[in-house]
Amino acid sequence: MKELKYQIKMLSDWHIGSGLDSATDADALVLKNNVDQPYIPGKTIKGLIKDALEDMIEVNRASEKALIRIFGKIKKEVNPGEKEQQISFSGNAFFSNAELPTEDSTEITDNNLSDYLYRNLASTAIGKNGVAQNKSLRVIQVTNPLTLEGYISGLNDEDHELLKKAIKLVRRLGVNRNRGLGRCKFISL
Question: With a threshold of 0.85, does the pTM exceed it?
Answer without folding.
Answer: yes
